[in-house]
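User: Run a structure prediction on this.
Assistant: Running it now.
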Amino acid sequence: MSSFAPQRREPGELFGPRFTLFADMLAVGLAAAVASLPLITAPTAFAAACAVLRRSIREDRPVSMGEYVAEFRAHGLRRVLLAGVAVFAAVTLVVLDLALAGAGLPGARPMSWALTAVAVAGLVVALRAAADPEVTRGWRPALNRAATRSAADPMGCALIVTAAGLCVAFVWMLPLLALLLPGPLAFAITAVELRAEPAHDDDAAVGSER
């Protein structure tokens, strides 16, 4: 059965299960924003948000803040620091390259477009790696798996770029939304990653019946 199957509302229940999931998504987004305040912890904070939302969707149960904290701590201090340093080093390198490309040198415009494409591709792979269910075992293998999935799923990559672009637009229009948007973004990335899983489960069930 698909984990996204419609669920009945209990008699007298004011809000359905989808509203509960929406509230959990916003709460997880706020927790991720708070956990990202040191900046270097931002990659792990987002990965923890993806993990708890994935379990909430797959197991059809509410999220607890204790679960989020436990997921964050599961990465370990060393991986938290390494992931943060790597992300900030990559961002700094891209910004410097774009600044050099825009300095009026010959071929600057094609170079800036190429660097932008590389940055977008890197962002997609990084977001998919954060949503990997085994990212706590190491970011490098998670990045390798994310790159493989990205190459095989261009539509998913387009959806992720759209979700990230919408988040940027929302923050530009109303900066205070930055405190809540990690949750919707984590939910969007997790939903993209889960797209094929229910079909896989259904196929396995059909095969077992045969």
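The CA atoms of residues 47 and 130 lie 4 Å apart.
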